[in-house]
Specification:
The chain has two domains: about 15-170 and about 225-315, BirA Bifunctional Protein, domain 2 (2-Layer Sandwich), CATH 3.30.930.10; about 330-415, 3-Layer(aba) Sandwich (Rossmann fold), CATH 3.40.50.800. The protein is about 35% helix and about 20% strand. The protein contains 15 helices and 16 strands. It has helices at about 15-35, 45-55, 60-65, 85-90, 135-155, 170-185, 190-200, 210-215, 230-245, 290, 305-315, 340-350, 365-375, 385-390, 410-424; strands spanning about 35-40, 45, 65-70, 75-80, 100-110, 125-130, 160-165, 250, 265-270, 280-285, 300-305, 330-335, 355-360, 380-385, 390-395, 405. The chain has an eight-stranded mixed beta sheet with strand order 1-5-6-11-10-9-7-8. A hairpin with a 5-residue loop joins β3 (about 65-70) and β4. The longest helix has 18 residues, at about 135-155. It starts with 16 loop residues before the first helix and ends with a helix.
Length: about 425
């Protein structure tokens, strides 16, 4: 049936879109304050980018990507996450040749073939940041503080920052060996995915959402138990910077995130009231990802926040966002022959930056006034023959019902003056 949207997608309607605008505008403002610049990447990329960047053993690559062969026999994939495309753009456009660090932010849709559930869809949206060129732990603390400030500004409460270190290529081999020793005697009790992970990447077993695997993994070795001296020093410094900023955090040794490219710091942000799937965003450091994508050895760190999850959390916490304001002015006419005159007035108002509208259904004056009230117009200009002969119109304040005659040429200035006084 062509009138139904595809499963796992949503229409974002007037009355709902204001929440999205709040999130996007808040992200723009905070990014400017933290000196992050906007980047926009294609919605689809060559499939190889995600296989190399995200990791072959991730659920995303193994089961969730929207991948197809185009007419040129090339395999392309709708982007399932935002970091790999930004890394590709950073390299392709030689942003590494300029001043470092390069600090970027993005907004937009992502695509994963997953089972739709509350707050999780096949087309979903993220806002996120990426910073390239520095391994300093203060940068880790900066991106986490930026994310927490974002939630504070949009009004989300009861938000917890969980952090961990997942180590580096120096200490991972020892961790992998210990994990294999722990899980091999229990292999038959693991889910089919985790049995494969035991061979390819046993660290991913800790991240499995299967209750049986979670029970088995509860006593498994953790990355924090096997950090090398450099990773431990880096993680301790990150914690100290967060404390210096006054940002509460929880050290979660079982937090590994769902992507293979993370090294060192990993973090998730949890909102209370969302049940088992409480994450509203997360990220971490990925010092080997640029190299994996064919570039030089350049460190990076970033995060992505799920817009749908944030909106769900706002709704469950009862956080109200401002409704879409109606037009500043509605131009009504007394008789149909005045339509052209009203159109001219409407055009002048809009050129002065005053949001305006008029009737397009041939309503009576009474019906026009009811419509103006329904769309929350602040003022109505009533155009009548007698008034136009004197080059005047009637200006009515909708809240109070007060009205007066004003010259046609002065109407825009009068309205701007009144609107300005309301915002003072």
């Amino acid at each position: 049936m062509l009138t139904n949207r595809p499963r796992g997608t949503n229409d974002i309607l007037p009355g709902q879109v204001e929440k999205w605008q709040l999130i996007e505008e808040t992200m723009r403002c905070i990014s400017a304050e933290y000196n992050y610049q906007e980047i926009r990447t294609p919605i689809f990329e060559h499939t190889e980018l995600f296989i190399r960047g995200v990791g072959e053993t991730t659920d995303i690559v193994e089961k969730e990507m929207y991948t197809f062969v185009d007419r040129g026999e090339r395999s392309v994939t709708l982007r399932p996450e935002g970091t790999a495309p930004v890394v590709r753009s950073y390299l392709e456009n030689r942003l590494n040749s300029g001043p470092q660090p390069v600090k970027l932010y993005y907004t937009g849709p992502m695509f994963r073939y997953d089972r739709p559930q509350s707050g999780r869809y096949r087309q979903f949206h993220q806002v996120g940041v990426e910073a390239f060129g520095s391994h300093h732990p203060a940068l880790d603390a900066e991106v986490m503080s930026m994310a927490m400030e974002f939630y504070r500004r949009i009004g989300l409460v009861d938000v917890e920052l969980h952090i961990n270190s997942v180590g580096c290529p120096e200490c991972r081999p020892q961790l992998k060996e210990k994990l294999c020793e722990y899980f091999r005697p229990r292999e038959s009790d693991l889910c089919s995915n985790c049995r494969q992970r035991l061979v390819k990447n046993p660290l991913r077993i800790i991240d499995c959402k299967n209750p049986g695997c979670q029970e088995i993994a509860k006593d498994a070795p953790t990355p924090l138990d096997h950090l090398c001296s450099d990773c431990k020093e880096h993680f301790d410094s990150v914690c100290e910077y967060l404390k210096a900023l006054g940002i509460p955090f929880v050290i979660n040794p079982r937090l590994v995130r769902g992507l293979d490219y993370y090294t060192h710091t990993a973090f998730e942000i949890m909102a209370k009231g969302l049940g088992a799937q409480s994450s509203v965003g997360g990220g971490g450091r990925y010092n080997r990802l640029i190299e994996e994508c064919g570039g030089p050895s350049i460190p990076g760190i970033g995060y992505a926040l799920g817009v749908e999850r944030i909106i769900l959390a706002l709704e469950q916490q009862g956080v109200e966002t401002a409704p879409s304001p109606g037009p500043d002015v509605f131009v009504a006419i007394l008789t149909p022959d005045l339509k052209a005159d009203a159109f001219k007035i409407l055009s002048k108002l809009r050129k002065k930056g005053i949001s305006s509208d008029q009737d397009y259904l041939g309503r009576s004056l009474k019906a026009q006034m009811k419509y103006a009230s329904k769309i929350n117009a602040k003022y109505t200009i009533i155009v009548g023959n007698d008034e136009l002969e004197r080059e005047m119109v009637i200006l009515r304040e909708m809240d109070t019902g007060e009205q007066s005659e004003v010259p046609v040429e002065d109407a825009a200035a009068k309205i701007k003056e009144r609107l300005a006084s309301c915002t003072d």
